[in-house]
Amino acid sequence: MGEVRLTIPRMHDDLRSAIDDVFPSVRAGLERLVRIPSVSADGFEAPVMRESAEAVADLLRAAGADDARLLEVPGAPPAVFATLPAPIGAQTVLLYAHHDVQPPGDLALWETPPFEPTERQGRLYGRGASDDKSGIAIHLAAIRAHKGEPPVAVKIFVEGEEEMGSPHIGEFLARYREELAADLIVVADSEHWRVGRPAITTSLRGLVDCTVEVRVLEHAVHSGQFGGAVLDAVTSLARLLATLHDDLGRPAIAGLVSGDADPLDLDEARFREEAGVLAGVELVGDGAITSRLWMRPAISVLAIEAPRMSEAINALVPAARAKVSVRLAPGDEPARAMRALTTHLESNAPFGARVTVTPGSSAAPFRLEPSGRGYDAIRAGIEFAWGAIPANIGVGGSIPLVADFTHAYPGADVVLTGVGEPRSRIHGPDESQDLEELKRGALAEAIALRLLADR
């Protein structure tokens, strides 16, 4: 689908001016949040998550949500909740984002420190600048554009563990079910097609992962004395992991669901540039690249646990482990896929090695119908803000809470938005957010709130 530019009437120019007015302070708030290293992963400091949640609550109060407070369930980082009431009978809109971020990884790969927001060429660099503290900034700007009195009832829910797969979202929904109920749920945690080319996400892949251990010996033995008659565990693990893909690099686990997507205008050259694929490295799979990214499963080995190079000795390694992740196409089912993954690993044990599979996290894939009042309002807001018709895209990643929300509130519309794009390097070094895209996203949401009231 080619890009379609629009001639947009000027009926929302007051909101555009309002966004321009509040944007400097909204950006300052975003930078304040980026400075807080709110990494929710195990092994990082829990008190920082509370500091991050309190900072979000402060920003919401300053935007007019006087009742902003923390929501808590045992074992989970705090979430933030706030409301802005509207006239009786008005639509209720829940605005979602998350304040936790991924670990920064190797600091040497960052041009500037990950938790020191830095602007370069119109982009704000820092961990969380895009994923997903930009979502918080969009919500703040949209409600501030309405001077803290939006024309519909607004609830804001900012979660603190999305980067861990939202393991406690069911408990949050059970404990705070009435507080979080809404007619429309806007999840500002997705992406656009590229800078200047907006999109609405209509599908998400799901996820299952596991830890697989391969054991061949009761204990380490001399590699010269015993090598040649028994294969070490690291090599055995490598042979097992190699069975996960066929000769074209396609997933080789039997029974995984697969589909096709609109190729849009994504060609190999653009994909290679955006992904940073090295010259000479071939792409895997077949069919449209969008199909491979959005509507087909993908298997990745995320980590291998074996002796470090600095610990290597001339001994046969008795056991080695790996974390295996499978992204699931829309229409697949996590429990069934986990069984298929487990069966594949156990039935392909090399040379009778003892294989133990420990299931990990899971998330259901999701497909949204591009229709309904909420979708129409968001689409119209985007069309005004960008002057272009948004593309309907899939996203290869997973947002587990989307399925949880739809199950908890079956009558609510769910729309996935966001302002990240391929150059944002989400989850990678030098993560960044284009500031003009952020401003357009805020304007689009402010307009959508108005349109929901008008309808």
Secondary structure tally: strands: 18
Question: Percent range for helical residues?
Answer: 25-40%
Please name the CATH topology of the largest domain. Answer: Aminopeptidase
Overall 3D form = elongated
Under CATH, the homologous superfamily of the largest domain reads: Zn peptidases
What's the overall average pLDDT, rounded?
95
Spatial extent as radius of gyration: 23 Å
Q: Main sheet? A: 6 strands, mixed
Query: For the terminal residues, how far apart are their CA atoms?
Result: 29 Å
Low-confidence stretches: none
- By CATH reckoning, the class of the largest domain would read Alpha Beta
Structural class: alpha+beta
Task: Report what the structure shows.
The mean pLDDT is 95. The strands form five sheets. A six-stranded mixed sheet has the order 1-2-6-3-7-17, sandwiched between helices. Strands 11-13-9-14 form a four-stranded antiparallel sheet. Strands 4-5-18 form a three-stranded antiparallel sheet. It is of the alpha+beta class and 455 residues long. The protein is 33% helix and 21% strand. The protein folds into two domains: 13-204 and 365-454, 3-Layer(aba) Sandwich (Aminopeptidase), CATH 3.40.630; 206-258 and 297-363, 2-Layer Sandwich (Alpha-Beta Plaits), CATH 3.30.70. The protein is elongated, with a radius of gyration of 23 Å. Strand 4 (118-120) and strand 5 (123-125) form a beta hairpin.
Question: Which labels suit this protein?
Answer:
single chain; 455 residues; Aminopeptidase; Alpha-Beta Plaits; 2 domains; four-stranded antiparallel beta sheet; 21% strand
